[in-house]
Amino acid sequence: MKKAFVISGLALALSACSASFKDVDHAWCPPEEAQVEHVNIAADALFQFDKSAPSDLLEKGKRSLDELIARVTGDYVQIERIDLVGHTDRLGSEAYNQRLGLARAETVRAYLQSRGITVPITASSAGESQPVTTDCVGEKATPALTACLQPDRRVTVSITGIRKGNKTQK
């Protein structure tokens, strides 16, 4: 009888560590591992073409960032850090695109911080080095080429933290 009671108690204690009880702080539960969620935000939704200053943030971009802030504050129990990487298309020089990508990432960081996000946020640039388009033809900035290259202009957001219920996206 005593053995069955001990086993039942142990099983009950361990089941409290399951996802359905994660809103309760149990010291005997193993710590959850932080996971990384990746979010892409189109730079054209954030900024006017070839722009990066806070005054160049578009209303649609501000709404996208506000949705990201709601996700960060609502979906996570704990956030270790947020990493931002600015990307550009291949139009313009490599050095210019590196600076533009960094300026966009820094503007997004400043916006997040101005809205109360206090976790460490890094900002960096990949410039034109990580395109997602493969079939855009041309070198001159025509309207058609600019439109084709739009997916390359983005800010990648990587959130490292523990989601509520530990439901993560990789």
TrEMBL record:
It is found in: Membrane. Residues 34-163 form the OmpA-like domain. Keywords: Membrane, Signal. The keyword Signal applies. Its main location: membrane. Residues 1-21 form the signal peptide. One of its GO terms (cellular component) is membrane. This is OmpA-like domain-containing protein. It comes from Conservatibacter flavescens. The lineage of its organism: Bacteria, Pseudomonadati, Pseudomonadota, Gammaproteobacteria, Pasteurellales.
